[in-house]
Specification:
mainly alpha, 0% strand, 246 residues, 83% helix
Length: 246
Amino acid sequence: MSALNKVGEYTLLMQKVLTRPDRFRETCKQIVREMNNLGVSSIIIVLIISFFIGAVITIQIRLRVDNPMLPKYTTGLVTRDILLLEFSSTIMCLLLAGKVGSNIASEIGTMRITEQIDALDIMGVNSANFLILPKIVGLVLFSPILVIFSMIIGIVGGYMVSIFTDLITTDNYLYGLQTFFVPFYIKYSIIKTLVYSFLIASIAGYYGYYVKGGSLEVGKASTDSVVMSSITILIADLVLTQLLLT
């Protein structure tokens, strides 16, 4: 299938997904379950990765910008901006595309090959809306919490470097965090995360929904969803950066 055909098929699927649910109360319950399955279950990995990346960024910047012409608070300032502008949104969502996206594609793909989706269609249920919409809404609603946790823990990771090493003093690090702070960067990061979350869940749902064959095809659909989600996230990052920061 050509790329153009896939785009058209994806668009038609989203038209079916993004409609008012036939069973609103059941959909709301499912959204809460998906927030737990997709969002809450990702908190630990987000915290661990953010902490160590924050620490590594701080060390790398301190070692690379050791220049008497630069103020000592530069390390804290640059660490903060890297975490807020790119890591806690774009890089973290690329990692979530592997964890969450593959999970969604595998779950829906398994339902397709075991004919559970066909059974829903026979009963007159909008299967695309019933299965995919709660995952999209659940991930989009919970993603801002993940990105805020990532920002905080990444900054804490850098702070631990200032405490347990002599690369930078705690006062300089904290001063750098506060210097030239732009509050819009937080909003910018959250906006990007909302877009990325929609892309991850919808693309994974698309690949899972249209699986044909057996278990091997489910695995391939899971892999394809991760690859395509990552590509679209990077494209969206370029577009959103151009629109929001220029």
